[in-house]
Amino acid sequence: MLSTILTVLLCLMILLLSGLRLLGWIPLAVLSGSMEPQYPVGSLIFVRPVAAEDVKLGDPITFYMADGRTLATHRVTQVDEASQSFKTKGDANAVEDQGTVSFDRLVGSPQFCVPLAGYVSILAGSAQGKMILGAALLVLVLLAFLPGRLMKTNASKRK
Length: 159
Description:
Layout: H1 2-22, E1 26-29, E2 44-48, E3 60-64, E4 71-80, E5 85-89, E6 101-102, E7 106-114, H2 117-124, H3 127-158
Antiparallel strand pairs: 1-2, 2-7, 3-4, 3-7, 4-5, 5-6
């Protein structure tokens, strides 16, 4: 019974993640504590694309850092329409971030957070993690279907 529940939950999670991705939402693992306690390390945040014009003072945003590859999520402390840029600061950081975030580096805004789920995402990103998660999935599938077959076999032997 427990294995069936776990299998159903896993399938629902896969469907949810796939559906959100199709809608353009991006799941991202939280790697640093700069936005704690709202987004704890190891959480999975779901970022929805937003237009720069819709971002307000105090909104958390996800953006590409100056290197153009690294993503960060911080809170907007200033919006400068003239230069089309934001000033940001991590909630747990003492000072504002250096420099500004131009509107074109905006990815979106986090809509919700699933604590600890980011660790699974990080694990799935590595070769070892894929093997571990694949093996765990196989075990779940076997646990879901094997006990029923064993009971049928035992019942037919008793007759």
